[in-house]
């Protein structure tokens, strides 16, 4: 099983060229620092919030979506695991490896964007390190949730096109605090950043919901994927 | 469901029942070919499936190897669905339409597939030793397919071999060695050759299956029966002008009353030649008469041959034979088929 998972990780990583990951990280970093600079000149206290909104609202979901799509070879999860599955490996551990590669790639892009953005937004203002630690944890949790959700979506529709559907739903339905937003990571991440609560859930409950969402989506993806 | 069924034998190990499936080779993952209710049971031996991707050959390869689960129906290899069984998939050697590179080198994959004892010999046998250290993802298509072909033959304790167009886009394939390997494996393992060219499989097998529009148009027609279906003989002669070829065509049309048609063509150039085509039912008798006539007219014959059969001609012959009920009168054909 470990061998299959390692193979899946290597397979996913080989589909995510390091150069592309680096370019994405660079572009994201430029965008976040540009926004931080622009906002800081007018209202210095709001700059970190704007950077956090940019990172969690745009950079994180898009990067996770791109990482899962590219890591899956722009196809469904079953087909994505086929190169290893045809050699006698079970599809499930290979899919776990693919998801892990997508998770690592997402962190590799989003962490630098967050750090540089906060660095520019805070500059001499205190609170940089504390915010980095808190937001860093949230990035890891959010990335796990998004990668799991997109992995589950990759098992539905031809060539895993449900991924795009999920991205759209996350943007539009997840933007609200209603009960309909419960299954979407965006809603919980916004709540954890100090925004509107989701269906009256506390921040602690939203963290739990995000963790549950991650586990449930991941297990469902593996269950839907046959051996 | 097809209306002809291959009579199962005791040794049959692969069984497809009412299989409907689509490949994903089209634009944006759409289907090019579909299987529409394929029933097929077979055992060790070489089985050639002639058809194009649009007829469902790629979909059939995917179902047999466990890449695709049939939308309807089932595919079992030794009683196990390869889609659901990693152990079964590992024992299916396959050359598929698209290479599926893993991360790692050729050497690592060969070691995994053929075992520590056999991987080096396997690569050497296919003259792939120079590629051993190359990363799989960096191989050109022809090299990648050559590696996959070698690994298919190197499968440990194989239960099934599925080879999709093994003669095209494969680097440096030695036809004789390939034939030997096929025959060697076919003694114990079912080998499925999927191709659009009957000429490639004709010397290898007497089991030719005809896939058209996702269904088997004919099962287990022998190559001999299909070769006779062309019913055309081309006589190519040396001639400076069209006169000699016209004379030959005239003589043949009078000496062959049972011929269904005689036509001729003269081709100018550095070495001008003429071709007389005769369409008849009994080509062996026609060939004898042609030889006699050529001798009498003292023409220099380059060749007397049946033209290579194309898929469309074969399909029309098979369908016509079925419409005429001719399949029942063909001994080899009727012996292995039973109408449903």
Q: Which sheet architecture does the biggest sheet of chain B show?
A: 6 strands, mixed
The most extensive contact between chains is: A-B, 21 and 28 residues
- What's the number of structural domains of chain A? 1
Number of distinct beta strands of chain A: 0
Oligomer: heterodimer
What is the radius of gyration of chain B? 23 Å
- Give average pLDDT of chain B, whole number: 78
Taking the alpha carbons of the first and last residues of chain A, their distance comes to: 12 Å
Overview in brief:
The complex is a heterodimer of chains A (227) and B (340). By secondary structure, chain A is mainly α. Chain A has ten helices and no strands.
Describe this structure in words.
- The complex is a heterodimer of chains A (about 230) and B (about 350).
- Chain A has about 230 residues and is mostly helical.
- Chain A has one domain.
- In chain A, about 75% of the residues lie in helices and about 0% in strands.
- Chain B has about 350 residues and is α/β, with parallel strands linked by helices.
- Chain B has a six-stranded mixed β-sheet, with helices on both faces. Chain B has a four-stranded antiparallel β-sheet with strand order 12-13-11-14, covered by helices on one side. A three-stranded antiparallel β-sheet of chain B has the order 3-2-5, with helices on one face.
- In chain B, helix 3 crosses helix 4 and helix 8 packs across helix 9.
- The radius of gyration of chain B is 23 Å and the shape is elongated.
- Chains A and B meet through helix 1 and helix 5 of A and helix 2 and helix 3 of B.
């Amino acid at each position: 099983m470990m061998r299959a998972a390692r193979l899946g990780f290597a397979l996913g990583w080989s589909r995510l060229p390091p150069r592309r990951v680096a370019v994405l990280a660079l572009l994201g970093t430029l965008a976040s620092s540009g926004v931080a600079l622009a906002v800081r000149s007018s209202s210095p206290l709001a700059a970190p919030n704007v950077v956090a909104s940019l990172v969690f609202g745009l950079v994180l979901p898009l990067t996770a979506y791109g990482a899962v799509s590219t890591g899956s070879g722009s196809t469904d999860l079953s087909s994505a695991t086929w190169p290893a599955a045809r050699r006698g490996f079970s599809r499930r551990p290979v899919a776990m490896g693919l998801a892990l590669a997508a998770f690592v790639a997402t962190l590799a892009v989003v962490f630098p964007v967050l750090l540089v953005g906060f660095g520019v937004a805070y500059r001499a203002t205190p609170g940089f390190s504390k915010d980095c630690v808190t937001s860093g944890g949230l990035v890891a949790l959010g990335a796990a949730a998004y990668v799991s959700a997109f992995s589950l979506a990759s098992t539905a529709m031809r060539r895993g096109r449900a991924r795009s559907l999920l991205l759209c739903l996350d943007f539009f339905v997840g933007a609200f605090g209603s009960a309909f937003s419960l299954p979407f990571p965006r809603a919980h991440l916004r709540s954890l950043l100090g925004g509107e609560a989701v269906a009256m859930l506390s921040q602690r409950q939203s963290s739990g919901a995000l963790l549950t969402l991650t586990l449930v989506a991941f297990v469902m993806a593996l269950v839907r994927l046959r051996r | 469901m097809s209306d002809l069924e291959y009579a199962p034998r005791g040794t049959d190990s692969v069984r497809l029942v009412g299989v409907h499936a689509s490949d994903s080779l089209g634009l944006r993952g759409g289907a090019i070919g579909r299987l529409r209710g394929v029933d097929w049971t077979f055992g060790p031996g070489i089985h050639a499936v002639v058809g194009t991707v649009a007829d469902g050959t790629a979909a059939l390869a995917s179902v047999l190897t466990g890449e695709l689960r049939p939308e309807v129906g089932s595919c079992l290899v030794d009683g196990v669905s390869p889609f659901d069984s990693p152990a079964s998939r590992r024992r299916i050697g396959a050359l598929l339409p698209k290479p599926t590179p893993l991360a790692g080198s050729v050497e690592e994959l060969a070691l995994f597939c053929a075992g520590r004892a056999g991987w080096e010999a396997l690569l050497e046998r296919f003259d792939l030793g120079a590629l051993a250290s190359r990363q799989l993802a960096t191989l050109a298509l022809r090299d990648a397919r050559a590696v996959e072909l070698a690994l298919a033959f190197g499968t440990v304790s194989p239960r099934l071999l599925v080879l999709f167009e093994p003669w095209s886009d494969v680097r440096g394939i030695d036809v004789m060695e390939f034939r030997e390997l096929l025959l060697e494996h076919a003694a114990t393992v079912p080998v499925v050759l999927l191709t659009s060219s009957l000429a490639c499989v004709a010397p290898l097998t007497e089991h030719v299956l005809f896939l058209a529009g996702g269904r088997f148009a004919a099962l287990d027609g022998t190559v001999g029966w299909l070769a006779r279906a062309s019913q055309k003989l081309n006589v190519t002669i040396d001639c400076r002008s069209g006169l000699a070829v016209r004379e030959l065509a005239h003589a043949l049309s009078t000496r062959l009353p049972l011929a269904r048609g005689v036509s001729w063509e003269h081709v100018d150039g550095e070495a001008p030649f003429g071709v007389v085509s005769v369409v008849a039912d009994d080509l062996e008798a026609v060939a004898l008469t042609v030889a006699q006539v050529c001798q009498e007219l003292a023409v220099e014959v380059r060749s007397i041959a049946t033209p290579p059969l194309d898929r469309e001609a074969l399909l029309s012959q098979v369908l016509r034979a079925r419409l005429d009920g001719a399949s029942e009168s063909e001994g080899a054909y009727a012996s292995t088929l039973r109408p449903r």
